[in-house]
Amino acid sequence: MKVRFWGVRGSCATPGGRYLRYGGNTTAIEVRAASGHRILIDLGTGVTELAKELMAAEFGQGRGELPVLLTHTHVDHIQGLPFFTPLFIRGNSIRIMGRELEGASLKEVLQDQLNGHYSPLYGLENLAAGLEVQTLRAGSSWPAEGFEVKTQLAPHGSTSVVACRITADGKSVVIMTDVEHAPEGISSELTELARDCDLLVHDAMFSDSEYTLRAGWGHSSISSAIAAAHAVGAKRLALFHHSPDSSDDRLDMLVQDAAEASSVPLFAAQEGHDVTV
Amino acid sequence: MYLTFWGVRGSYPVPGAATVRYGGHTSCVELRSDRGKCLVIDAGTGLRGLGKKLAQEFRKPDGATYNLILSHVHWDHIQGLPFFEPAYIGDTKIVVHAPRAAAKELRQVIGGITRHEFFPVDLDAVPADFEFHEVVPGSAFEIDEFTVLPIGLNHPFGAVGYRVDADGSSMAYVSDTAPFDRMLHKQHFTAGIEEPSDEDREILKTMRANLVESLREVDTVIYDTHFTSEEYEQFPHWGHSTPEHALQICQEAGVRQLVLYHHAPAHDDDMMDRIAEKFGLLGKEANVVVCVAKEKMTLTMGEVTNPGIVA
Predict the structure, then answer these.
(1) Does any CB of chain B come closer than 8 Å to the CB of residue A244?
(2) Residues on chain A touching B238 (C-beta within 8 angstroms)
């Protein structure tokens, strides 16, 4: 199984020379199985780069199929949707899965993202590809051909997001972004979801000192990511959802310190990098 | 009067090595009068960097009012607003001036991007007070020493440009707009070019004439030149112009300087260099100085009487 990070940045994209090595696009992760199946997690600006690769293959001919799991609908996780070119090609079949929301449905929220005020697309119905929006209960297994996908709700400030465990080829990656565990640590449900995974991709937006000023914002410190990796027995940890204020040099420093403090081998997720699980 | 670009890109922000020199942030311009009063034009992702600078300049206990004029509310022109640091300081007022394209109130539309499904902090919950002011094409208004004239443009769901006069000089911001010959943009989805009716053609003719008249003798015009002419032929229904169209308008209006702006995401630095070279030469023939907008680039309009601030 391969994991490719197309966007690793949280909150907002960070163009510029200080963000070239880790990358400035907002969140998007592609997981590929040896069978050739793929699943995409989140639709941040990183998907505009993935789109180029997909369009050069079967998606350019309207023969692509892609399941997309949305962790949640904060803008940095969906802002690539209107620019994801496979959606403009008739024949492609793209299925967005997310959790049921309170108040508005997932489809209504995505529809609002594309309303005429904000987007010249004027709505999901104008995307030429077949787009299906499917809401599922977190805590259950979600359907994606070629993978086993288990999900669980994770706390994110005043709301919650979907954490997932994706298994294929006998290996498991767990994606836990935009999560802030309770002060006593990761919940038993999330521990169960992530237990003994081969790779844990975890929110690590803040350094420990930044976190003290931003507790309650719904994001993790690097230390709490390490603690979670240790608690679940993860074999490797990828620090993810980097702060827009973390330049390459700053991340190098943070990662070096983190690696020394962690019993679980770790690295910071880098845009464009393939990780073999 | 002088200005600095904080975001020059259209559609969506483009990080990476290919956009380091021209910049990857979406639309945002900082305009300053000689004595340092600030007027922000558009609130794309570039606004985050500008907001940090303005927050550093902020001195209590005076409080501060920040004025933003928006061309329209497509995502790439407003997505920086939730990351505008002065919104999180108390004692600040943020006045957003924007066209209203439909019955919905501006507060509802612009505040809508911070509905809890999209962003964790609601616009109404931030420490700063937000005020919304509807602008109408043709109705000039004053902000501090700036005289601001909204100009109707040709863009899906509607957009306005602005002419701004201050300190005895002038600039204009003309983004986003399509040219005024092939199609009149309205408030519905179009998968391709829509042939204009006779009535549409009249509207387009008036809109164009009005734009040229509004830009008459303006010092510096920032213009939506998203497409090359070849790209425009493929996507004439997307609501964006080309450098050729912009130059034609600026030449007719007797503009001194044209700044190409709202670069397509696919236009990398090398391509922007080629565009700069080509239209620099064509501009000379047309007697218009042509340059390409770059992030952090500062331009002055007229004689700046307090050049100390410009550095």
Answers:
(1) yes
(2) 120
Residues forming a β-bridge with B223:
B174, B260
Rounded to whole angstroms, the Cα distance separating A245 from A18 reads 10
- Which pLDDT belongs to residue B310? 38
Please report, for chain A, the start and end positions of each structural domain, with discontinuous segments joined by +: 2-276
- Over 70: is that where the pLDDT of A4 sits? yes
- The verdict on a CB contact (< 8 Å) between B12 and A79 is yes
Cβ <8 Å between A12 and B119: no
Decide if A158 and B19 are in contact by the 8 Å CB cutoff: no
Complete domains list, chain B, with CATH: 2-301 (3.60.15.10)
- Residue for token pair 């609501």: B239
Q: Which helix (H) or strand (E) holds B253?
A: helix B243-253
Q: How confident is the model at residue B302 (pLDDT cuts 50, 70, 90)?
A: confident
The per-residue pLDDT for B306 is: 57
How far out from the chain centre does Cα B51 lie?
17
- So what's the architecture of A2-276 in CATH? 4-Layer Sandwich (3.60)
Do residues A46 and A68 lie in contact, with contact meaning Cβ atoms separated by under 8 Å? Answer: no
Interchain contact, B24 vs A24, CB within 8 Å: yes
pLDDT at B305: 64
How far is it, in rounded angstroms, from Cα A41 to Cα A156?
17
Q: How many CB atoms lie within 10 A of CB A135?
A: 15
Structure tokens given for A254: 């943070």
Distance from CA of B114 to the nearest CA of A (A): 9
Residues of B in contact with A73 (CB under 8 A): 117-118
Phi, psi of B116, rounded to the nearest 5 degrees: -60, -20
For the stretch B75-112, pLDDT in tens is 999 999 999 999 999 889 999 999 998 888 999 999 99
This model of the complex carries an ipTM of 0.96
Q: How far is A120 from chain B (nearest CA, A)?
A: 6
> Using the beta-carbon criterion (under 8 Å), do A158 and B116 form an inter-chain contact?
yes
Chain segment B203-246, per-residue pLDDT in tens: 999 999 999 999 999 999 999 999 999 999 999 999 999 999 99
Instruction: Read off the pLDDT of residues B208-219 as tens digits, 9 standing for 90 and up.
Output: 999 999 999 999
Record: contact B119-A74, CB cut-off 8 A: yes
Q: At what angle do helices A248-261 and A222-232 cross, to 10 degrees?
A: 40
pLDDT tens string A63-83: 999 999 999 999 999 999 999
A157 interaction partners in chain B (CB closer than 8 Å): 120
Å from B303 to nearest chain A CA?
31
